[in-house]
Amino acid sequence: MQAAGTSGTGMEENGVIEPLPDEEFGREVTSDYDPSDTETTFGSLTSSVTGHVWEYGRRYHAFRYGRYPLPNDDEEYKRESLRHAMLKELLKGKLYLAPIGDNPQKIIDLGTGFGEWAMEMGELFTGAKVTGVDLSPIQPLWVPSNVEFIVDDIEDEWVHDQDYDFAHFRFVNTVLKNNELVLHNILQNLRPGGWVEIQDVYPRISSDDNTLPEDYPPAKFYSLLQGVLKDQYGFDLKVLESLPDRLQRLGYVNVQRKVFHMPLGEWPKDRHLRMLGGCFQEVFLDFVAAMAARPLVEAGFDKADIEELVVGVKNAVGNRRIHAYVPIHFVWAQKPPA
């Protein structure tokens, strides 16, 4: 194990990152990093990179403030950790589906979050260099010796290493402004024959037995959120629908998609599915609470209406007579071999 080299971005003009005003809009700017930890192999980190912003009762990234709508605090860590465990259970212990072989040398995890996937890949492939990239410096300081984390915006001009064997996204593409640009950059920086994999939720709630009410609150939440994130952030929550075609147009080959129907709640009779549904119920409710804390407020929704929606969603997902599920898409594609 080693102390992680967590780096600032090389994207800012002339390499200078302007610090955020501490008092602007009443935000409280803090940092979890000890000064001795800011000297890394990539240089010193400025306060705007290592810092955090507290508002609406949650903690958010300071670097590129407002770029990403979800918090990066302990509550979010618990949600992401449970989601990671849920997906491993869904994939029967696997971390990916792309046929990357037994000996990848360079792996990059884009939007790595708290870094669990990257660290487990580093432990699985001890001969590989694994890089995790995120807007927030929230990854552990002690990581496998072949793993590093970089603070950066993955939608900026690519300055990372090249010739990757595998590029990975998880719950990231629905919160990108320009998927085609990012996927183009990856294609240029994969080695010939390298792979990219995208794992994400498609925000459409369904049932196979007509138990879903027309006014189902979780469906209402998703519908509301799509408009808010499109207007406030420029995100397209339905990008997964067209992702395989986009990958092919960009020049990827061997494009594959696998869709899992994740139960929303503990309604399945099958024990394994019931366990997955219970995990996803908790992940989904925490996601609703996080979106209610900031994006819905900043979109101008009345506080009482937000609270009513959150309560309605919580009651709905606890109703085992409603057999709702949400599609989780796994899409992978290859850079043409040389």
Automatic annotation (TrEMBL):
Classification via PANTHER family: ABC TRANSMEMBRANE TYPE-1 DOMAIN-CONTAINING PROTEIN-RELATED, METHYLTRANSFERASE
Taxonomic lineage from the root: Eukaryota, Fungi, Dikarya, Ascomycota, Pezizomycotina
Ranges for region Disordered: 1-44
Range of residues in the leader sequence: none
Pfam families: Methyltransf_23 (PF13489)
InterPro entries reported for this sequence: SAM-dependent_MTases_sf
Family to which the UniProt record says this protein belongs: Belongs to the methyltransferase superfamily. LaeA methyltransferase family.
Annotated protein name in UniProt: Methyltransferase
Organism the protein comes from: Podospora pseudopauciseta
Listed Gene3D superfamilies: Vaccinia Virus protein VP39
Domain of life: Eukaryota
